[in-house]
Design brief:
By secondary structure, the chain is of the alpha+beta class. The chain contains eight helices and 15 strands. It starts with a strand and ends in a 10-residue tail after the last strand.
Length: 293
C-alpha cells in the first residue's frame, strides 16, 4: 500500500496520514511503515485513540519486541504489559511521583541525548511512543538525524572514528546527572556492552554515527580523551539543522529508528502536571559488532 506522507523536516521525519491503528495492522501496512522509516527515520501518526493491546498489536506487526524494560524498581509496574515502558511521572496508583522518588531521579536521564537500549548487547531497532496524557506546556521530544550528521563530518574525522568501538551503559549516562543509586542487581543488569561508533543503516544503506549519552569509554583510548571526542561529536550531531522538535498532541504516536537517530525529552513541570506516555521498543537483529559496518 502507498501511504500519504507529509515531510516535517528538510532532512528526515514525516507525518503519515490516513492510518487507523484501532484496526488490526495488515502486512501491507507494516511493510509501508518500514519503507517510510527507512527513508525518514522518524514517523508521526496523529490522532490514534488506541489502547495498550492495540499498540502492542501494531508494534509486533513490525517486529520482535524487547521483553525486559531497563528501569529501576521494575517490580513497581502500573501497565498491563511487561514489555511496555512507562514513560511517565506517575505512581502505580496514578498519582504524581514524589520529588525525591528514585524513579523520578532515574528518569531525568531521558533529557540527555541518547539512543534507546544502546546499553543492551543487541540494541533497539524502533521505538514507538504513544501520548495518553500530556502537560499543557513543555515535554516536547527532540530527534537528531545521525545519518545527516555523519554526512556532514569532515573526511579526516570520518577516518578517525570509522573503526572505533565504545562501551555503553545506563550507569554511565546516569552518572552524568549524579545518579548512582543502583542496587547490586541493577549494576549487574546494566553492565557495559560494546557497540560500533559508526554503523551502516541496513534499510537505506547510509552510514550513521551511533552516539548516546550511555557511552562511557572508547576501546583503546584514555577515558578523558574518549569522552571529549564523544562530547564534540554530540555537539556536532545535535546542531539545529539536524534536529526536529516534536510538540506532542494527545493520542500522537511517534516511531523512531534508534539505529540512525538520537532523541531527548524536554522539561515540563512534572511535580504539577501529569504526563502519561507509553513506549514499546523493537529489538535489532544482532549486536552492532556482528552487523556489517
Amino acid at each position: 500500500m502507498e501511504l500519504d506522507i507529509r515531510p516535517l523536516h528538510p532532512l528526515f521525519c514525516a507525518e503519515v496520514l490516513g492510518v487507523d491503528l484501532r484496526e488490526p495492522p495488515s502486512a501491507e501496512l507494516a511493510a509501508a511503515i518500514d519503507a517510510a522509516m527507512d527513508r525518514f527515520a522518524v514517523v508521526v501518526v496523529r490522532a490514534q485513540q488506541i489502547d495498550d493491546d492495540q499498540q502492542m498489536a501494531f508494534a509486533t506487526a513490525l517486529g520482535p519486541l524487547e521483553d525486559t524494560p531497563a528501569v529501576v524498581d521494575a517490580h513497581r509496574h502500573r501497565l498491563k504489559h511487561r514489555e511496555m515502558v512507562d514513560i511517565s511521572n506517575l505512581e502505580t496508583d496514578g498519582s504524581i511521583l514524589a520529588a525525591d522518588d528514585r524513579r523520578r531521579m532515574f528518569n531525568l536521564g531521558n533529557r540527555l541525548w541518547h539512543s534507546d537500549s544502546s546499553f543492551k548487547s543487541t540494541p533497539a531497532k524502533y521505538s514507538m511512543l504513544h501520548a495518553r496524557v500530556i502537560p499543557p506546556e513543555g515535554g516536547e521530544t527532540e530527534f537528531a538525524d545521525m545519518r545527516a550528521a555523519w554526512d556532514a563530518l569532515p573526511a579526516d574525522m570520518r577516518s578517525r572514528i570509522d573503526q572505533l568501538v565504545c562501551d555503553h551503559s545506563l550507569i554511565y549516562s546516569r552518572a552524568l546527572l549524579g545518579f548512582d543509586a543502583f542496587t547490586p542487581a541493577e549494576r549487574e543488569q546494566f553492565a557495559p556492552v560494546p557497540q560500533r561508533l559508526v554503523r551502516r543503516h541496513p534499510g537505506s544503506g547510509r552510514r550513521s554515527i551511533y552516539l548516546s549519552s550511555h557511552i562511557g569509554t572508547i576501546h583503546g583510548w584514555p577515558r578523558p580523551e574518549a569522552l571529549s571526542l564523544i562530547r564534540d561529536l554530540t555537539e556536532h550531531a545535535t546542531q539545529r539543522e539536524f534536529v526536529y522538535r516534536h510538540t506532542w498532541r494527545e493520542h500522537d504516536l511517534v516511531i523512531w529508528d534508534n539505529r540512525c537517530t538520537m532523541h531527548r525529552a524536554r522539561p515540563f513541570d512534572d511535580l504539577r502536571y501529569k504526563r502519561d506516555m507509553r513506549r514499546l521498543t523493537l529489538r535489532d537483529s544482532a549486536p552492532t559488532l556482528a552487523q556489517a559496518a
